[in-house]
Each structure stands twice: as C-alpha cells, then as structure tokens.
Specification:
By secondary structure, the protein is an alpha/beta fold. 25% of the residues lie in helices and 25% in strands. Strands 7-8-9-10-11-18-19 form a 7-stranded mixed sheet, covered by helices on one side. The protein has a 6-stranded mixed sheet with strand order 1-2-3-4-5-6, with no helix packed on it. A 6-stranded parallel sheet has the order 14-13-15-12-16-17. The longest helix has 17 residues. The model has no long low-confidence stretch (mean pLDDT 94). Bound molecules: zinc ion (2 copies). The site of one zinc ion has 5 residues, from loops.
Length: 334
C-alpha cells in the first residue's frame, strides 16, 4: 500500500506521493518546511493553515487543495485524512486507509504543545512512519513552560543590563513559538524580514503574531531592551549589528547537547524544539498501536534498533536518496 520510491513516499492505489522530493503529479504535504514541501508538483494537498505559507514559498500560482484536521477525501478507494502533528502551524500527520489497512505518515511532529500549532493527536494505525531527529536518550527536553519562563527572564536581565535580546530561531515554526510566549510587557519586539514574511502569511490565515518588521535599510536609534527574533542567517549580518549592544540566544533542540552553544559562538542556548525528544517519540509511537514502524530522517539505525529491542516492534530504517542534502536544509529548522 505504501512504497518508498526515489521520488518519495508513494501510495500506488491512490497514485499520490507524500512530501515528495522530485516533481510529481500529485503531492500530499505534511507541512510547509522546505524539506517536505518542494517546488514543481502538479497538485498540492495540504492543511488549510499551510496554504498561505506554501504559496509564499512556492509561488502564488501553484494548484493547492486543502483539508482541515479530521476531514477526509477518497482517491481510488483510499481514504485520506489529516491529523494534528503539533510540529508547526498547519502541520499534519497523513492517514491513509485502504481495504482495512491503515498507514500514518507523521512528517515532523512533537508531543509538547507550543500553544501555536494544534496539539499532536495519536492516530491508531498498523504502520507508522516516524522521524527520528532527536531519537537518542541524550535528547531529554524540559517542559515548554519552564523554557518560556527562562526566555522572558533572560530578556528581563538583559534589559536591566542595557542590552537588546536576540532570539535566533527558524522563521517558520520556531519564530512563532517564541513570539507567542514572549512577554510583551518587557519591551518592543522587532522582526527580521524572513520572520515578518511568514507572520504576514499566517496573518492572512487569521493568526496574528506580535512584532514589528525592521527593513534592511532602516536605522534604529538607541534601542535598548528590545527582543529581536531572527533566523540563523542573520547571525553576523549588518541587519543584526544595528541592534548592538545585544546578547544572542539560539533556540534549538541541538542546544540540549553539551558544547552546542559555544559552537555557535552565542551567549545562550535555549532548548526549544519543534521536534520530539526521545521520550516524546517513544510515547507517540506506542500510542499509535502500530506494529510496523518505519524510521526516517535523524538517527534511523539507532532509533529503529531501540524500538525493536525495547518494545519488540517491527521497526526498520528508511534511507532516503537525498539524506545529505535534506540534512543540510533541516539543520536550521529544528
Ligand atoms: Zn519540519
Ligand atoms: Zn523535516
């Protein structure tokens, strides 16, 4: 019912691909991150809240059809529905049912609720395709409530010391998670253009976020105590330098690793991830009741071995053709 082809994950009876890497006639898209939503497909099917971002990134003229969570369509006898993945706004697990057999392609997901995206819901299935970005026990994230408190405390301390606070996070997903939880009573919030563009697209879908866009050539005078939200590409850029003096925090699951903050050469690491840590992965996978688990991007060999040994699941790793290229692209988004 599902095959792993060079183009991507394929469902022969429905003749559709899920998050394909190469151009295909019909693509089901779990979410709008670039390693999942690529250009050149004939038709796109995605969640309603992914549409504006998809058009922003891939072109206004792409052919998009949308579904809301729980709604289903039928393609050649395959029932297809989207379910909350909790990863970013509009992210979905895609459920495919054919002659009583059920598969779920989860895309990227997290169990922690970020207060921005619809919280993850486990979907019962026979076969589950999971990511494994943080599929090692060393990735053990503290609850988001603690992280949000830490972010605002750091911002307050910096303000008291006469600094601006720079929060580095990917423009789609992480930035909105940060923005929703910054305490706007502390100070002004300024946005990098990449973040502001995504926020504008989400605003068109009825989801407003705080913060002012700062254009490339704008001169800001004597700004102190502001929060600046920007992607990794802003590090070391003239755009960022205008906010000096500042302290910089990188918000990423990678910050759970020792030495990560120093490798980035920044002042603070904040362990804020849009992916599951090891415990969340285990919890989510067991909740599906699936016997067959296909492990994709991340720690495939280690994590599939863990699932076999710890839970006796029929877990195998799935290698993708474009692993190296994709890994490079997703470094920033996690
Ligand atoms: Zn993603
Ligand atoms: Zn991804």
């Amino acid at each position: 019912m599902i095959e792993f082809r060079p183009e991507g994950i394929y469902c022969p009876p429905a003749d559709v691909y899920i998050d394909p890497w190469l151009p295909v006639a019909r693509a089901l898209i779990t979410h709008a991150h670039s390693d999942h939503a690529r250009t050149g497909h004939g038709k796109y099917l995605c969640h309603t809240l992914s549409e504006e971002v998809l058009r922003l990134r891939l072109g206004q003229d792409i052919a998009v059809q949308t579904l809301v969570y729980g709604e289903s369509i039928s393609l050649n006898g395959v029932r297809i529905s989207f379910h909350p993945a909790g990863h970013i706004i509009g992210s979905a697990q895609i459920r495919l049912e054919y002659k009583g057999e059920v598969w779920v392609v989860s895309g990227d997901y997290k169990v922690f609720s970020d207060g921005v995206s619809t919280p993850f819901e486990p979907v019962k299935c026979h076969s589950f395709i999971t990511e494994s970005t943080f599929g090692l026990p060393v990735y053990d994230f503290v609850p988001f409530s603690d992280i949000y408190h830490e972010m605002n405390q750091w911002w307050s301390f910096n303000t008291r010391d006469g600094f601006n606070s720079v929060f580095i996070g990917y423009s789609l997903g992480k930035a909105q998670n940060i923005l929703r939880h910054l305490d706007t009573s502390i100070g002004e919030i300024y946005l990098h253009g990449a973040v502001a563009n995504i926020n504008d697209a989400l605003g068109r879908s009825g989801l407003p976020f705080p913060g002012k866009r700062v254009p490339e050539l704008n001169v800001l005078k004597n700004t102190i105590g502001a929060a600046i939200v920007a992607p990794m590409s802003a590090l070391g850029s003239p755009w960022l330098r205008r906010f000096k003096p500042y302290r910089i925090a990188v918000c990423s699951g990678w910050m759970a690793l020792r030495g990560a903050r120093r490798r980035y050469g920044v002042d603070k690491g904040i362990v804020l991830s849009d992916h599951c840590d090891f415990k969340q992965l285990n919890q989510a996978i067991l909740a599906t009741g699936a016997e067959n688990i296909y492990v994709t991007h991340g720690y495939q060999p280690q994590y599939s071995q863990w699932l076999r040994e710890a839970y006796g699941l029929n877990a195998v790793e799935v290698k993708t053709l474009f692993e190296a290229q994709l890994n490079e692209e997703i470094q920033e988004e996690i």
